TrEMBL record:
Similarity field: Belongs to the PlsY family.
Enzymatic reactions: an acyl phosphate + sn-glycerol 3-phosphate = a 1-acyl-sn-glycero-3-phosphate + phosphate
InterPro entries in alphabetical order: G3P_acylTferase_PlsY
Transmembrane segments: 6-27, 48-73, 79-98, 110-134, 146-174
Subunit structure: Probably interacts with PlsX.
Keyword Lipid biosynthesis: yes
Entry EC no(s): 2.3.1.275
One term under GO cellular component: plasma membrane
An annotated GO BP: phospholipid biosynthetic process
Domain of life: Bacteria
Keywords from the UniProt entry: Acyltransferase, Cell membrane, Lipid biosynthesis, Lipid metabolism, Membrane, Phospholipid biosynthesis, Phospholipid metabolism, Transferase, Transmembrane, Transmembrane helix
Protein name: Glycerol-3-phosphate acyltransferase
Amino acid sequence: MEFIILIIIAYLLGSIPTGLIVGKIGYKTDIREHGSGNLGATNTFRVLGVKAGIVVTLGDILKGTLAALLPFFFNFDHIHPLLIGVFAVVGHVYPIFAKFKGGKAVATSAGVILGVNWLLFVIMVISFLVLLYLTKYVSLSSMLTGIITVIVTIVQQDIGLIIVTSLLTVFVIFRHKANIKRILNKTEPKIKWMG
């Protein structure tokens, strides 16, 4: 019963449409009607700018972290935080509060990792920023960061993290199918703020 309760809470946390809230309250803009139409941080950066993008990124990360920490908050030590955190990612991608059309799972997945292994999170952030500097593709950097994360967990020999990061990485890549096509066609937009 405890597991089901935590799953529901985690899903509802993940379903909070940060990009939609920030856009409508702060900018009177529904970001679903602009750019890629996606509710995630990348589209927020493109449509609303750096400040809004940072707020949405942090909000989406926080959702995953809070979800992963739910077993700790409720003192349910027998429930693995990764199992609960995954449902926040599901909520982020398929949010009940936004007609089940959400983001691409990147920031919230990172938040789940932060709630379980802060060092791995730092490695993810550094990897993402380095890859973003080198490729200037947010989507490609996100997918490659996922792959690097899986490799690091294999080195760490943490079975739980290996399984969950592998699942999340596959999910992230799946959510970026259209981006992969655009990268191959050389039509995927590159970020401009790094020159």
